[in-house]
Amino acid sequence: MESTRRPRLTPAIADIRRAVRALLPTEGLVLVGLSGGADSLALAAATAFEAGRAGIRAGAVIVDHNLQTGSADVAVAAAETARQLGLDPVLVWSVTVDGDGTGPEAAARTARYAAFTAALEQTGASGVLLGHTLDDQAETVLLGLARGSGPTSLRGMAAQTGPILRPLLGIRRAATRQFCADAGLAPWTDPHNFDPRYARVRARETVLPLLESELGPGVAVALARTAQALREDSDALDELADAVARRHWAHGTIDAAALAAQPAAVRQRVIRLGVEQECGVWLDRRQTLAVAALVTDWHGQGALSLPGIRVIRQGGLLIFSVPA
C-alpha cells in the first residue's frame, strides 16, 4: 500500500500527512477523490503513505465529468498516478452532467457526489477523502455572504459529512502545491479553475486577493475561522430546533403557541425542519419568514400558498398540506 516514492519530509508533507492521519479510519478501505490537481494529488499521496502505516487499504476514485476536450485522457493519467502511489483499487467513473437549472458548478457537483456514492457501494469503502482546503472554505463562506444564504451556507464545509471526509480544511492551497513540488509530483491544472464565468473563480482570483490587499493578510483564515464558529452555533440551534419539532410537530400540524414561545432562530429552524421532514419540501428564508408571520404577525390572514406546500392557521394550529 505504501508509495514507492520516498520524498524528504518537508513541512508541507508533514502537515498534510498529519491532517490525513487525524481523519483516517482504523480499519477497512477508504477512497480518495482524485482529479489530478494539486490539492487532490497531495491528498492521495499522503493517504497512500498514512494508510500503509496504519495497516488499512486506500484506493482512488476519479470522476470524468466529460465537460472538456481530453477529459478522458486526464482521468487515465490520474488513474496511473494513483496506481504509482500504491492506491488500490483505482476506479474511473465517466458521468454525464445534466443541466438541471442549478448552474454548471452545482450540476457537476451533483454528478460527482453520485459517482462517489456508487464507488462506495461497489467497493465497500467506509469513506471518500476530498481535497478541499482552507482556501476553498474561505471561498464558500465569501460566496455565502454575497448570496445572503444565512448560517447554513456560512458554516461552510464540515470535516466529515457522512462518508465524505475533508482532512485538508485547515491546510492552505499553497501547501498542497508545495507538497507536490517536494514529492516530485506533477499536478494537472484544470482550466476551469481560471474561467471567470464561474463565481468561485472570481472569488478566488479577484475578490479574495483584493480583500487581502485592502484589509491586510489573513482574510481567508478569518473567513474559515468564522465558518467554524458559525458551525458550532448552528449545530447547537439545530439540536434545540430538533427537540422542539419532535415535541410539537404531529401529522403536518404544529401548535402556533409552541412556535411563538421560541426565539426567532429556533422558530425558523423548527418550521424548515418540520416542513422538510413532514412534507418533503425545502423552504428558503423568505418562505420560512412568510410561514412564521402566521405566528408572529397573526391578524386572521388566509391560507399561504408556497411552492409545493399550503399553510393555514386554524384554531391555534398551523396546518401544512401538499397540494394534489
Automatic annotation (TrEMBL):
The keyword ATP-binding applies. It is an enzyme of class 6 (ligase). One of its GO terms (cellular component) is cytoplasm. Its main location: cytoplasm. The N-terminal region contains the highly conserved SGGXDS motif, predicted to be a P-loop motif involved in ATP binding. Residues 255-314 form the tRNA(Ile)-lysidine synthase substrate-binding domain. Transmembrane segments: none annotated. This is tRNA(Ile)-lysidine synthase. HAMAP family: tRNA_Ile_lys_synt. Residues 30-205 form the tRNA(Ile)-lysidine/2-thiocytidine synthase N-terminal domain. One of its GO terms (molecular function) is ATP binding. It comes from Cryobacterium levicorallinum. Belongs to the tRNA(Ile)-lysidine synthase family. It is found in: Cytoplasm.
